Amino acid sequence: PNVELMWAMRAYQHAEVYFNLISSVDPKFLKLTKADEQIYGDFRKTFGDLKIDVLDPEELKSEPAKEKWRPFCMRFEGVVEDFNYGTLLRLDCSKGYTEENTIFGE
């Protein structure tokens, strides 16, 4: 529980920074990592049917989903710092980070 709490705190800090970035810069010009294109390409190959504008928590946290997410994340070991940390996700991208609209993905 303590490790998960520390991850959540760090994820919140990252979420604030990234939300400020995506709110102030046109996302098509924004690079968050050197591997953005690789991550997005691999994401679309692995999760091509995943609806990303409004997320279904079951598609992120169910056992079958975790079986797909773990190998995906592991591909970025050594490529992305903190590749296996949890992250805060907005369930509906048109809304802000609120308790009702946020899920912690690990």
Describe this structure in words.
Residues 3-104 form the Polysaccharide biosynthesis domain. InterPro entries: PBDC1-like_dom_sf (IPR023139), PBDC1_metazoa/fungi (IPR008476), Polysacc_synth_dom (IPR021148). With 106 residues, the protein is mostly helical. It has a single domain (3-105), classed as yst0336 like domain (yst0336 like fold, Orthogonal Bundle). Helix content is 47%, strand content 8%. It is built from 4 helices and 2 strands; from the N terminus they run H-H-H-H-E-E. It has helices at 2-24, 36-46, 58-61, 63-74, and strands at residues 87-90, 102-105. Strands 1-2 form a two-stranded antiparallel sheet. The longest helix is centred in the N-terminal third of the chain and has 23 residues, at 2-24. It is globular.
In short:
With 106 residues, the chain is mostly helical. It has helices at 2-24, 36-46, 58-61, 63-74, and strands spanning 87-90, 102-105. The chain has one domain (3-105): yst0336 like fold.
